[in-house]
Design brief:
The complex is a heterodimer of chains A (about 475) and B (about 150). Chain A is an alpha+beta fold. Helices cover about 35% and strands about 25% of the residues of chain A. In chain A, α4 packs across α11, α5 crosses α11 and α8 packs antiparallel against α10. Classes of the chains: A alpha+beta (about 475), B alpha+beta (about 150).
């Protein structure tokens, strides 16, 4: 595909016209510079493929961080009619409810500086990460079932947090209508030992400081100020979610044939929303969503314990308040206005984040004036952002925006680029401590392996689908 | 443990993908292709040369067609690896049709003192999956979500 195949609707919105078997157009949000890079990979073709699915509403959407995934592009958003539409595990991804929690402390960067190495060492020990890491115990069947239906609420009931955390998590930390009966024994086995673990790859635990405020009103509502230390947790549903996705991709592969759904790509395997397979997947997916909410709550608790221990001489432990937590791989039933009519739709966000305007009932009271917080992690050498949702996102993208920077190069190329370099020393020279469970992980996750998140976030703001509130820069990063 | 950059056997070529990992595998026949595909998946995860084939497992999978069978075979091996914390290095495909596979695989429990662990495979994907016969035998390309 090249630029001649697109219509430029605005300076930041490009349309792939509806042709052939497409049921709706494709729409990609990007600056001109980002668009040149997007066209260099196969992601726009994946936008076209998604546009061919039954019951898709309005457009097959792509955020500025779009890149080639499998089936749905990463950075893809697609909403489906409840009667005519489908649900697709590939439109959510293997890591169901991969997401981000932001904690804000009452510490400044100066107060943390001298204790940073100790914090990093203790966090690395207390929050299991890396390939094969387990949570230190095996959940009983009963506990696992409770986690699947209660999410972060289960963790809070165990003393691993408070109700104040729940109020500031998407879905209040628990997605309703989860159905453990739709989850396989294999998925339960994989999840039994992994609660409280970070995983590996691009998952991380990061200590940041707020370096810039763009929207004073939003920053005040979020409780963020320049110099403040924050902690970001990025992880998902671990092996539990991966197995749920795998189980249902296999099942949907057969279902799509039975329902005579023509698929341009087999990984778009899907079933009608109202079918037994569709309902079963949603029930199981919600279990995985809840597992991830409980996982991040358990990790947040350990982070708080470590900070309390390292700052034990302070008298009162440092406060680490949950600013917000978002999901960026999920399918949800949401109400949206389409052509003036309010409709319930199944919105798939795969590598995309909900960015609701403040007047939506799903947005916590504290953020009604400014919009839902959106947490956008960058790479370990540059920065991350806190954004807020907008009415324009509601009008154009089913209340969605980007999710991160997206990779710019393969892991193999990143390892080659890192050859002969000491990446940990390079980051230390920039004032960033990095600790990784695997030597390869640090090489594969170096900054230049990722697009510049600032470009992505600027594109979203220029397109009006979210607004910058604050910028965070890393002080320390722990990777699996 | 070996260096992070390793030499692959001549029948295995890593695929360059920005977000995921993948391999292309060649073999003279289908049985060997399926066995090598499994070895290649574990080559992405670890150094199979360091994995002692001490414990055997029987693996049996069914699928609607040959491509799906390849995905199910690798997905099942990944599931056992992750759930039971085992690594495998020997793959003996005993029965193979377009819909069924039966194999005996051998490996050992993960020992972080001896086994480098390079990545965690979340899933074995259909995207870009190819499985084809050519003049030299068979070729398959598979992408793993990592």
């Amino acid at each position: 595909m090249n630029r001649n195949d697109l219509n430029q609707l605005t300076e930041y919105l490009w349309e792939i016209p509806r042709t052939g078997k497409m049921r709706v157009p494709g729409r990609i949000y990007a600056t001109r510079a980002l668009m040149d890079r997007i066209l260099a990979d196969q992601a726009p073709q994946q936008v076209v493929n998604v546009a061919c699915l039954p019951g898709i509403v309005a457009a097959s959407l792509a955020m500025p961080d779009i890149h080639w995934g499998y089936g749905f592009p990463i950075g893809g958003v697609a909403a489906f009619d409840m009667d005519e539409g489908v649900v697709s595990p590939g439109g959510v991804g293997y890591d169901i409810n991969c997401g981000v929690r932001l904690l804000a402390s009452d510490l400044t960067a100066d107060e943390v500086a001298a204790r940073l190495p100790t914090l990093v060492d203790r966090l690395f020990k207390q929050v299991p990460c890396g390939v094969g890491a387990s949570g230190g115990g095996k959940l009983s069947d009963a506990d696992l079932t409770d986690i699947l239906t209660q999410g972060a609420r289960w963790a809070v009931a165990q003393g691993l947090g408070t109700d104040a955390d729940l109020a500031h998590i998407e879905e209040n930390g628990c997605m309703q209508n989860a159905d453990p009966d739709q989850v396989s024994a294999h998925a339960r086995e994989r999840g039994a030992k992994q609660l409280g673990t970070l995983g590996s790859g691009n998952h991380f635990l990061e200590i940041d400081r707020v370096t810039e405020v763009y929207d004073a009103a939003a920053a005040e509502a979020l409780g963020l100020s320049v110099g403040q230390v924050t902690v970001t947790v990025h992880c998902g549903s671990r092996g539990f979610g991966h197995q749920v996705c795998d189980d249902y991709l296999h099942r949907m592969d057969q279902a799509a044939k039975r329902y005579k759904i023509a698929l341009p790509d087999r990984q778009l395997a899907c079933a009608p929303l109202g079918s037994p397979e569709g309902r079963a997947y949603l029930g199981a997916m919600r279990c995985a969503v809840n597992y991830a909410f409980a996982n991040r709550q358990a990790i947040a608790h350990r982070v708080r314990e470590v900070f309390a221990d390292v700052f034990g001489d302070r008298g009162t432990p440092p406060a680490l308040r949950t600013v917000y937590e978002v999901a960026h791989n999920i399918a949800k039933l949401e109400t949206h206005t389409v052509d003036g009519v309010e409709r319930t739709l199944c919105v798939h966000r795969k590598g995309a984040t909900r960015a609701f305007a403040g007047d939506r009932p799903e947005v916590p009271e504290a953020f009604r004036r400014v919009g839902q917080p959106v947490l956008i992690p960058g790479d370990m050498g540059r920065c991350s952002y806190v954004l807020t949702g907008t009415q324009q996102a509601m009008d154009q993208t089913f209340g969605s925006t980007c999710h991160g920077a997206g990779r710019a190069m393969s892991r193999g190329k990143a390892r080659k680029a890192a050859r002969g370099r000491d990446i940990v020393a390079e980051l230390r020279a920039k004032g960033i401590l990095v600790k990784g469970a695997g030597r390869r992980t640090i090489s594969e996750e170096l900054s230049e392996a990722y697009k510049d998140v600032s470009e992505v976030v600027d594109a979203c703001e220029l397109a009006g689908i979210s607004r910058k509130a604050a910028k965070l820069e890393p002080l320390a990063c722990i990777k699996g | 443990m070996q260096d992070i950059d390793r030499t692959a056997p001549p029948w295995l070529a890593p695929l360059d993908h920005p977000a995921d990992e993948g391999v292309t595998v060649r073999a003279p026949d289908l049985h060997t292709l399926f066995a090598r595909a499994a070895w290649a998946m574990f080559w992405c995860v670890t150094d199979p040369g360091a994995v002692r084939p001490e414990q055997e497992r029987d693996v049996w999978v069914e699928a609607a067609d040959r491509e799906a069978l390849l995905v199910r075979w690798l997905a099942e091996l990944n599931r056992v690896h992750q759930t039971e914390e085992l690594l495998f290095s020997r793959f003996d495909v005993r029965e193979l049709t377009d819909q069924r596979l039966r194999a005996k695989v051998a490996g050992e429990p993960i020992d972080t003192e001896r086994h480098a662990l390079y990545m965690e495979i979340k899933g074995v994907t259909f995207h870009g999956l190819t499985l084809a016969k050519n003049e030299q035998g068979w070729t398959a390309s598979i992408l793993f979500d990592v």
